[in-house]
Amino acid sequence: xxxxVPGDALIGYLLASIRIVSWLVVVPPFSSRAVPNTAKVVLxxxxxxxxxxxxxxxxxxxxxxxxxxxxxxxVAIGASMGFVTFLLFSALxxxxxxxxxFGGFSLAQxxxxxxxxxxxxxxxxxxxxxxxxxxxxxxxxxxIGGLLSTFRFLPVGASPDLGHASDAxxxxxxVFFVTAVQIALPMIAVLFLADLGLALLTxxxxxxxxxxxxxxAKIGLTLLLVGLSxxxxxxAMDKMIDLSQQAMAxxxxxx
Length: 255
Description:
Elements: H1 7-26, H2 37-51, H3 64-89, H4 91-103, E1 110-112, E2 117-119, H5 121-136, H6 139-153, H7 162-204, H8 210-228, H9 232-251
Antiparallel strand pairs: 1-2
Helix pairs in contact: 1-2, 1-3, 3-7, 3-9, 4-5, 4-7, 5-9, 6-9, 7-8, 7-9
């Protein structure tokens, strides 16, 4: 028994898997070292089957030079969409890093072996919380579905619109900073007032040696405020998932 596969269908399938694996390499938590490279390749090949039926109408490259150019294009498309998604998902981690700066935890930086970078205490903690919320709420399925839907608007072989891509990246940067500040701002304000009160106490009553009281008080206050912020994080993650889907669709030229 022989099974024959048309060359055009195989090329389209492989190009689609290249876009998907380029996205997986950039987007957390799939980009983590906890996910082996072999698993990323197998997952991209499996997800490419979902878009394979829509590839028969696309214009595929016929020469070696066109095939190499299209491969580079699919890598760039997948990586750019992955970067936008990564930027939006990093808002929660950035909010934790801001809390570390004003709470005095920024001095206790450690090396993150999964992210291959140095991160602060609450920066790493919020990143883990974001990953947990993403999987518990099945948000990862929505994000992957958003990636697969881009093949309808930007099929393999089509030229991407760079104008839509630049607008989506700029919007993602704006949402990243705004969301991080919105999550951390109430805690930053309270910690700033605590610092101000302790500074005034030091001036009014130097004999109390408020400096020795400041650090334990700030640590306890920071932990309390972070605990009170937990109910906000699922709503922020839902917003990031929705925005990541819209950003990928905008980069693909939808609408």
